[in-house]
């Protein structure tokens, strides 16, 4: 009898403990659930989880609903991988920001190749959006386009018979490129008339910077800001003293940008340890970027910067900073006005995500986005000038 009573007491105690433990676990669960994002954000790095996003999760049920309807009724084959890729592109396009882009594996490789000048075989033409159409901005010397007779100002109309006039610049460029030695047919519109050129693609030599000399003036042309651009230009600058150079013309016309770090390296030749760029970001707050110290070997050198309507992004950082510090006179046409910073994220399977993370301002707090850099001396260079091998902007720069 005593043994049975003792057993009942033990079961009662165990049940009571279980209820208490359960109540405690419930409370803990609620507390942890409510505070999970802040707790894991703080302790995540110590647990090897890295920085955990505090962004609220998205309810994807509506997207699932659309897929279920498609899967159950679409009269055709559905590729899950293609749908996922399309959804990724749709996510970025829905932001309405032309600079935030998802790139699949192939597009990411092409992006890297373009950034580093590995354009493969082409016809040697620089193109860009002008007056609502993608036009030839210039043809490169000793390359198929110039030899065939294509001219600056020509509107890109067809490539191999396919109409491309309503496509983006990058899409048209992709169609023009191809294997070395293969033939491409390009139709342009010039003065309201179609003209067709058949050319063989050649490997294009596309360095990011080069220098020429006109007496004691060094003309440094920077076509894009690649990883080694700053180092290349510093190499040129190191020889200026021996060559008796007393003036530099920095040509940024047609330069669509590149790495901000390369722009910083370039500016460090003129600006010694001062702010060259201000960034304002929703997620990262306001920050400042300074030039390097002890490398400003051109800080007292008379400098003129050439810009035009296709000078953009990192090029505008350079032109704006040199203008703010009065280290250079800016000559040419108003720049493009791309004053936002992108962060590149490497994704699985070689894809990339290019995200606008901040807006940037010149050292004097001038916003460039949508505004551009207004030259100190405005000089136009027309398509007729380019085709006639005339350069009134460079001529003006030489006289200053």
Q: How many separate helices? A: 12
**Weakly predicted, low-confidence segments:** 1-52
Question: Beta-strand percentage?
Answer: 25-35%
The strand count comes to: 19
What level of helicity do the residues show? Answer: 25-40%
Report the radius of gyration as a whole number of Å: 29 Å
- Widest sheet: strand order? 10-11-12-15-16-19
Any overview of this molecule?
There is one protein chain. The protein has helices spanning 2-43, 61-73, 80-93, 105-115, 144-148, 169-176, 229-237, 240-243, 260-267, 314-324, 383-387, 392-399; strands at residues 101-103, 121-122, 125-130, 133-139, 155-159, 162-163, 183-190, 193-200, 202-203, 209-214, 217-222, 247-251, 275-281, 285-290, 302-307, 329-332, 340-346, 352-361, 377-378. The chain is an alpha+beta fold. A hairpin with a 2-residue loop joins strand 7 (183-190) and strand 8 (193-200). Helix 7 (229-237) packs parallel to helix 9 (260-267) and helix 9 runs parallel beside helix 10 (314-324). The longest helix has 42 residues, at 2-43. Mean pLDDT is 85; it is low at 1-52.
Brief description of this entry?
The chain is built from twelve helices and 19 strands.
Throw out a few tags for this protein.
400 residues; alpha+beta; 6-stranded mixed sheet; 5-stranded antiparallel sheet; 12 helices
List the helices and strands and how they pair.
Elements: H1 2-43, H2 61-73, H3 80-93, E1 101-103, H4 105-115, E2 121-122, E3 125-130, E4 133-139, H5 144-148, E5 155-159, E6 162-163, H6 169-176, E7 183-190, E8 193-200, E9 202-203, E10 209-214, E11 217-222, H7 229-237, H8 240-243, E12 247-251, H9 260-267, E13 275-281, E14 285-290, E15 302-307, H10 314-324, E16 329-332, E17 340-346, E18 352-361, E19 377-378, H11 383-387, H12 392-399
Parallel strand pairs: 11-12, 12-15, 15-16, 16-19
Antiparallel strand pairs: 1-18, 2-9, 3-4, 5-6, 5-7, 7-8, 10-11, 13-14, 13-18, 17-18
Helix pairs in contact: 7-9, 9-10
């Amino acid at each position: 009898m005593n043994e049975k009573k003792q057993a009942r007491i033990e079961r009662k105690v165990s049940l009571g403990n279980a209820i208490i433990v359960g109540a405690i676990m419930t409370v803990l669960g609620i507390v942890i659930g409510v505070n999970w994002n802040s707790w894991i954000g703080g302790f995540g790095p110590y647990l090897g989880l890295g920085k955990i996003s505090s962004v609220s999760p998205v309810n994807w049920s509506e997207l699932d609903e659309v897929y279920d309807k498609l899967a159950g009724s679409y009269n055709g084959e559905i590729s899950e991988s293609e749908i996922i890729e399309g959804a990724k592109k749709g996510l970025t396009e829905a932001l309405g920001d032309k600079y935030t882009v998802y790139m699949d594996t192939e597009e990411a490789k092409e992006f890297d190749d373009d950034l580093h000048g590995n354009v493969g075989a082409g016809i040697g033409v620089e193109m860009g959006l002008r007056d609502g159409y993608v036009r030839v901005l210039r043809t490169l010397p000793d390359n198929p386009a110039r030899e065939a007779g294509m001219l600056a100002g020509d509107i890109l109309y067809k490539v191999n018979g396919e109409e491309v006039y309503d496509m983006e610049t990058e899409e048209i460029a992709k169609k023009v490129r191809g294997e070395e030695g293969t033939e491409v047919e390009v139709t342009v519109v010039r003065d309201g008339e179609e003209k067709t050129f058949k050319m063989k693609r050649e490997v294009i030599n596309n360095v990011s910077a080069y220098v020429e000399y006109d007496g004691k003036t060094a003309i440094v042309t920077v076509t894009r800001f690649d990883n080694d651009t700053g180092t290349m230009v510093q190499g040129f600058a190191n020889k200026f003293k021996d060559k008796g150079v007393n003036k530099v013309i920095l040509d940024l016309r047609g330069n669509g940008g590149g790495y901000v770090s390369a722009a910083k390296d370039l500016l460090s030749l003129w600006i010694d340890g001062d702010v060259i760029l201000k960034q304002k970001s929703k997620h990262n707050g306001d920050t400042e970027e300074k030039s390097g110290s002890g490398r400003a070997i051109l800080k007292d050198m008379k400098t003129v910067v050439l810009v035009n309507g296709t000078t953009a992004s990192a090029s505008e950082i350079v032109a704006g900073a040199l203008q703010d510090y009065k280290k250079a006179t800016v000559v040419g046409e108003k720049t493009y006005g791309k004053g936002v910073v992108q962060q590149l994220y490497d994704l699985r399977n070689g894809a990339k995500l290019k995200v606008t993370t901040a807006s940037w301002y010149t050292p004097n707090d001038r916003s460039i986005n949508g505004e551009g850099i207004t030259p100190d001396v405005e000089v136009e260079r027309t398509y007729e000038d380019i085709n006639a091998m005339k350069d009134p902007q460079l001529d003006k720069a030489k006289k200053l």
